[in-house]
Amino acid sequence: MLTHNLGYPRIGINRDLKKVVESYWKGDISKSKLVESTEALRVMHWTKQKEAGIDWVPSNDFSLYDQVLDTALLVGAIPERYQELYDQENDKILSYPIDTYFAMARGIQDEDHDISAMEMTKWFNTNYHYIVPEFSADQTFQCLSSKIFDEYEEAKAVGVITKPVLIGPVSFLLLGKEKEGGGDFHRLDLLDKLLPVYQEILDKLERMGVEWVQIEEPFLSLDLDGKVKKAYRKAYQKLDEDLGELNLLLTTYFEGLGENSDLACELPSDGLHIDLVEDQNQLEVVLDKMNGEQVLSLGLINGRNIWKADLEKAAEIIDQAEEAIGSDRLWIAPSCSLLHCPVDLEQETDETALPAEVKRWMAFANQKLDELSLMKKLAEDSLTDEEQELVRAHQADLADKGESALVHNPDVQERIENLDDGILHRDHPYRERKKVQQKHLDLPDLFPATTIGSFPQTKEVRQWRADYRKGKLSWEEYEQHIKEAIDKLIQKQEEIGLDLLVHGEFERNDMVEYFGEQFAGFAFTRNGWVQSYGTRGVKPPIIYGDIHRPEAITVKWSSYAQSQTDQPVKGMLTGPVTILQWSFPRDDQPWSETAKQIALAIRDEVKDLEEAGIQAIQIDEPAFREGLPLRRDDWDRYLEWAVDAFRMASTVVEDQTQIHTHMCYSEFNDVIEHIARLDADVISMETSRSQMELLDAFVEFEYPNEIGPGVYDIHSPRVPSTDEMVALLEKAADVLEPEQIWVNPDCGLKTRGWEETLPSLENMVEAARLMRDKV
Ligand code: GLN
Ligand code: ZN
């Protein structure tokens, strides 16, 4: 039996990759220095994995920005607009055009160029974002970058024989999109042109003496139509034709193979990796269908979460597989690349963030590698006495987690057991609420103007928070600063002429972390970074136990803001689904249960806000749609608990209190019926860039409640004109009832500067006034 790893976090233990890449961008270090420092990082990672006893360590899992973008460069899929740059880039280190590469990722704007970046989107159901390859009808491919070969040699030079990672041809095409105006074709039609390049790559790897290639086809875990299945058969038959000694490990993750298990087992490959964390049931099916020679790789350690693995349970699964196919053909691994979890738990020494009792239930990437080695020895019955002791302690930690009073809170559980259905409903339907709210809030009947919540988080604001954390500011001083910021903002909003005001969210670092920090059941890390995209990372909170809200969180800020004005101020909360999606969740109960607990904690906050005199409360759910499972069959179950969680959080209020929600980057077509079931009085969303296209779903569905389609693109410092915003609002008024429409930006303003924010909002309010006169 062999152990292997699918991918190691590339950011480095101290976010070293971020530092060198950003220094390069700033011009502080040279190209060769960049190459040198990242090589050092890779060598460190290979050595680390080898020392942990991993038999097959991956190479080409490293990336300066993104592995899909690397693949685009590998096969020469450089969109035309970067061609000029590529031609000019004479210092292509090892045939790797780094500047063209970064321009593709981030766009480039200087005296000579103004080229937009390629699109970015979420990597399956993770919070990692990849660069979307662009294809045109006359697309050609060629083996361009030598990265995959270079990194193999690099590892070999330091004594590590690796298994190169390569995104498979079908997944690569499916990950991309047909370029607008690029002709009428389907990207899978390019397969015939792409395959020879893959053949060339594999051929070269073989000549270099590579034994195994981890060829990744995550789409095999999704719903596939006939066209895709056909492409799979064709591609792998073709690749198999002239493979000599080189072995392909067909790699899937994030879901079970489901009804594609026939297809996956039938494709000519020398091995298959399956994700048994997401779907354990597939094991039996796959064991049954594999041919007599294939290697089976069992993904047994969760590559996306931070909990210790149950080694004994894993050993049982290994036994089951071993009985069926023997140990020679058996590999064990994490479920997916460890890219999705932080690097090293040892670094977390701040017990105020992460209590020692919780820490000992956890494992980051380095710890997971050790788990893998132990798991193998446990299954093989070859543990030394010392290792036996390690396994015993490990399992004891898990048993302790199962019973710990930190995890289980009888009050929370009792409350959930005694919930009745009434908790999911407002007192009266929207139509009736609307009348009461109109009187209560006294907003303009038509086109009321508001914002999404946050205002510029200037350096100054962030400095207060940092100083308070370091003890340089007392709580009273900190509070005073925030209050002054709120005072000024209230005054500004009144001057601008906004109708429903906000307090500005100056007290928040992050919309999820802020709430997590005040809920019981959450822990935090100081250095638990996970790559989100490029050099950006996130530090997701850790949900370890039953959640409740020991005391009110936002009430003091919102009621302070309300005390400064006669106009209504909107309370601002993050919704249960988003808090859950952007955290590391518990693995000992279903997500739906955790969502319920968060929902109840928010419900308490909503009630307190209402009692403190707040007349409108917004519960943001930007992650609602991205939480959709990868398989259609699982959608209904998700939507059921996700909608219930939102309702549970929001329906506690009287008819007169207006509930808002907000979603950004959302596509609503598939889920509009469920958005309607949220029964928020008002929903705001991002629409300005799509020219109100997103509204179609609402129109078709005859969405009954109020809608604030964003008219101001907050992702750019540009100041939108009144005319533009009037034009967008007219588009909205053409298809919606005027009484339904709110006027607001696309999203929060926290990343903007005041210089552009003020004139933009003035123009927006002017647009609302013009619209009121028009209808
Ligand atoms: N209320 C939040 C803000 O304005 C919403 C952020 C979001 O949707 N991502 O910042
Ligand atoms: Zn938003």
Automatic annotation (TrEMBL):
Binding site for Zn(2+): 662, 664, 686, 747
Residue ranges constituting the Cobalamin-independent methionine synthase MetE C-terminal/archaeal domain according to the UniProt record: 447-769
The UniProt record lists the keyword Heme: no
Molecular function GO terms recorded: 5-methyltetrahydropteroyltriglutamate-homocysteine S-methyltransferase activity
Function in brief: Catalyzes the transfer of a methyl group from 5-methyltetrahydrofolate to homocysteine resulting in methionine formation.
Catalysed reaction equations from the record: 5-methyltetrahydropteroyltri-L-glutamate + L-homocysteine = tetrahydropteroyltri-L-glutamate + L-methionine
Annotated HAMAP family: Meth_synth
CC cofactor note: Binds 1 zinc ion per subunit.
Domain of life: Bacteria
Identification of the protein by name: 5-methyltetrahydropteroyltriglutamate--homocysteine methyltransferase
Pathway in which this enzyme or protein is active: Amino-acid biosynthesis; L-methionine biosynthesis via de novo pathway; L-methionine from L-homocysteine (MetE route): step 1/1
GO BP, sorted A to Z: methylation
Family matches, as Pfam families: Meth_synt_1, Meth_synt_2
Amino acids binding L-methionine: 452-454, 505, 620
Binding site for 5-methyltetrahydropteroyltri-L-glutamate: 122, 582, 626
Enzyme Commission code(s) on record: 2.1.1.14
Active site: 715 (proton donor)
Coiled-coil region list: none
Keyword Cytoplasm found: no
Residues reported in the UniProt entry to bind L-homocysteine: 452-454, 505, 620
Entry similarity comment: Belongs to the vitamin-B12 independent methionine synthase family.
Cofactor(s) recorded in Swiss-Prot or TrEMBL: Zn(2+)
Annotated keywords: Amino-acid biosynthesis, Metal-binding, Methionine biosynthesis, Methyltransferase, Repeat, Transferase, Zinc
Domain Cobalamin-independent methionine synthase MetE N-terminal: 3-324
